[in-house]
């Protein structure tokens, strides 16, 4: 996962986390707005101002523990022409934005590699910042696509399969927060997520950097 208490790494992580959190929530808000829901706009979420999207506690927890949260975008599917389809589009907009950020920043790293700027310390530091930002957003992409309550992936699953019909999912929604905290604190969450993060990250690195 993202957890790394090295002070330099944590410092270099801040821009990537800010960018990832802000653009993730902005993507949700913009997509919902484009599909006819006035709620995000009425709440001032159609903006790139970090103050509108960042939950300071969630940001600090993410920086230290490797999982966290931003201010969730409130939406109202009743305004959508096709509620289930459009709610899926809104749900995946955030994670796909994180994936796009990762692609862009690995692309910028490739440009640095081709320009031979990495021969000096400044170039190496910039490259480190770019790679860390890309890696963080891969983590955010995978984390948010978990088919678990509170995450975007669960909204996709619930819209596709009408999960309210099944007792298992009802119980999962009821106790989801407790289960997630238990998994995170015990370290199991990292063990579950890390292999997926590595697969996605390695795929992008091999695709773009090599």
UniProtKB/TrEMBL annotation:
<dbReference type="InterPro" id="IPR008915">
    <property type="entry name" value="Peptidase_M50"/>
</dbReference>
<feature type="transmembrane region" description="Helical">
    <location>
        <begin position="126"/>
        <end position="147"/>
    </location>
</feature>
<dbReference type="GO" id="GO:0046872">
    <property type="term" value="F:metal ion binding"/>
</dbReference>
<keyword id="KW-1133">Transmembrane helix</keyword>
<comment type="similarity">
    <text>Belongs to the peptidase M50B family.</text>
</comment>
<feature type="transmembrane region" description="Helical">
    <location>
        <begin position="53"/>
        <end position="70"/>
    </location>
</feature>
<dbReference type="GO" id="GO:0008237">
    <property type="term" value="F:metallopeptidase activity"/>
</dbReference>
<dbReference type="GO" id="GO:0005886">
    <property type="term" value="C:plasma membrane"/>
</dbReference>
<keyword id="KW-0378">Hydrolase</keyword>
<dbReference type="GO" id="GO:0006508">
    <property type="term" value="P:proteolysis"/>
</dbReference>
<keyword id="KW-0479">Metal-binding</keyword>
<feature type="transmembrane region" description="Helical">
    <location>
        <begin position="168"/>
        <end position="186"/>
    </location>
</feature>
<keyword id="KW-0862">Zinc</keyword>
<dbReference type="InterPro" id="IPR052348">
    <property type="entry name" value="Metallopeptidase_M50B"/>
</dbReference>
<keyword id="KW-0472">Membrane</keyword>
<feature type="domain" description="Peptidase M50">
    <location>
        <begin position="123"/>
        <end position="181"/>
    </location>
</feature>
<keyword id="KW-1003">Cell membrane</keyword>
<keyword id="KW-0482">Metalloprotease</keyword>
<keyword id="KW-0812">Transmembrane</keyword>
<dbReference type="Pfam" id="PF02163">
    <property type="entry name" value="Peptidase_M50"/>
</dbReference>
<dbReference type="InterPro" id="IPR044537">
    <property type="entry name" value="Rip2-like"/>
</dbReference>
<feature type="transmembrane region" description="Helical">
    <location>
        <begin position="90"/>
        <end position="114"/>
    </location>
</feature>
<keyword id="KW-0645">Protease</keyword>
<protein>
    <submittedName>
        <fullName>Zn-dependent protease</fullName>
    </submittedName>
</protein>
């Amino acid at each position: 996962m993202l957890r790394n208490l090295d002070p330099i790494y944590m410092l270099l992580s801040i821009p990537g986390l800010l960018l990832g959190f802000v653009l993730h929530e902005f993507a949700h808000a913009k997509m919902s707005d484009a599909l006819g829901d006035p709620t995000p706009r009425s709440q001032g979420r159609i903006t790139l101002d970090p103050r509108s999207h960042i939950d300071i506690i969630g940001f600090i927890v993410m920086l230290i523990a490797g999982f966290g949260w931003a201010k969730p975008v409130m939406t109202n599917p009743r305004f959508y022409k096709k509620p289930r389809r459009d709610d899926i589009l809104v749900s995946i907009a955030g994670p796909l934005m994180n994936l796009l950020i990762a692609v862009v920043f690995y692309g910028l790293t490739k440009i640095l590699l081709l320009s031979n700027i990495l021969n000096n310390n400044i170039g190496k530091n910039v490259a480190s910042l770019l790679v860390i930002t890309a890696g963080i957003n891969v983590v955010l992409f995978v984390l948010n696509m978990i088919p678990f309550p509170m995450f975007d992936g669960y909204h996709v699953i619930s819209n596709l399969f009408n999960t309210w019909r099944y007792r298992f999912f009802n119980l999962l929604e009821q106790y989801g927060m407790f289960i997630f905290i238990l998994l995170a604190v015990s370290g199991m969450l990292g063990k579950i997520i890390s292999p997926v993060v590595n697969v996605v990250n390695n795929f992008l690195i091999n695709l773009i950097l090599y």
